[in-house]
Amino acid sequence: MNNFSYKNTTKIHFGKGEISKIKEEIPANARVLITYGGGSIKKNGIFDQVIDALTGITFFEFGGIEPNPHFETLVKAVEFARKEKITYILAVGGGSVIDGSKFIAAGTLYRNELWEIIETNGAHIKEAIPLGCVLTLAATGSEMNKGASITRAETKDKLFFGSTHVFPKFSVLDPTTTYSLPARQVGNGVVDTFVHVVEQYMTYPVNAKVQDRFAEGLLMTLLEEGKKALITPEDYDVRANLMWAATMALNGTLATGVPTDWASHMIGLELTGLYGLDHAQTLAVLLPAVWLYKKEQKKEKLLQYADRVLNIKQGDDEEKILAVIAHTSQFFTDMGVPTRLQDYGLDETIIQPIIEKLEQHKFVKLGEYKDITPDDVRSILKLAL
Ligand code: NZQ
Ligand code: ZN
Questions:
Q1: What is the pTM of this model?
Q2: Which residues line ligand 1 (CB under 6 A)?
Q3: Domain for residue 2, yes or no?
Q4: Which ligand is nearest to the CA of 150?
Q5: Mean pLDDT of the chain
């Protein structure tokens, strides 16, 4: 196991009815900015629960944060927060709203040009307005981590920043809030969670037994429960297990002491930025191609996953690895997230623009060995066509 330092400062309130706990977390004299997306929270009753919990506290609203939140929109929110002297931000939504709210939280107190936050990966953030979250979509883990992905719509740059200052102070995880999700977002959430786990697992062994078995437990949970959420959307236990799995998959725990990959995520950001695919759609396309391309380097862990998670016992090593990739791709397809570029109407003409964006962003040494170059990405994308 590698050395590591680990700290996570987000408090979690988990379960049905826990939205009412907001009032215990936000000071009575706060000036709260409720941030949200395209309005789903106003149709499914979540907004009303939040307002109830804020009784007696001054609040303002900023809606319209889009999926893959736009820098241009968030700049307007920062201006609003400065004007109204906001002292607490309450993000109500999925990863996009929470990520966008992290930017607003840091941006409102930022002294330099706002894009610098993204350009410097958040390195110069010295403070942020406290942020609380009500999660409505189990997927990204943003509710319990310090990262955020932001898109500059004007230039199609989808990038990210991180800072310990934007760890949510608290997050409410009420599984019933996810009942109203469209099937596409249920599938996306399970696939994103799955890929977060394997980005931190499917590398090479370092004898990190706790992390490995923790990751395998999360993968088994997703494989068992994922499809049930599509079939019986209002099954509380299914939603609860998926929600906690998503949070645990990317709150820093799995990455402790182990090598991590993240190649599928890095290439996937460019695919979303340039062609607008949902985040999870990019991962469903890229992950099987990365595994196929890197199957020799990932051999030991692919076989461990075959044995312990998928129970694949037949065949030689090569056959088992190909079965692992086929099985995982089928799982994504079953979740309603297709795994080939052509399923999204894309062909080989996308390859060169993606390579150019990766080079522009200096994402030129990817994967756990930092050996995936733009030429390798070209080969990976060909495997994904
Ligand atoms: O905008 P509203 O109206 O709320 O609708 C949203 C949106 O259209 C809808 N939705 C959310 N909760 C709902 C609901 N509809 C009905 N009922 C509910 N309870 O779902 C749609 C998608 O929402 P979005 O927040 O975009 O999805 P997700 O949570 O998958 O977030 C994706 C974003 O997170 C970033 C992605 O890059 C992408 O920008 N990620 C953030 C990470 C992080 N901070 O650690 C890591 C991830 O790898 C990822 O990069
Ligand atoms: Zn992701």
A1: 0.98
A2: 37-41, 44, 67-68, 93-97, 99, 136-137, 139-142, 145, 147-149, 177-178, 180-181, 185, 188, 192, 250, 265, 279
A3: no
A4: 1
A5: 98
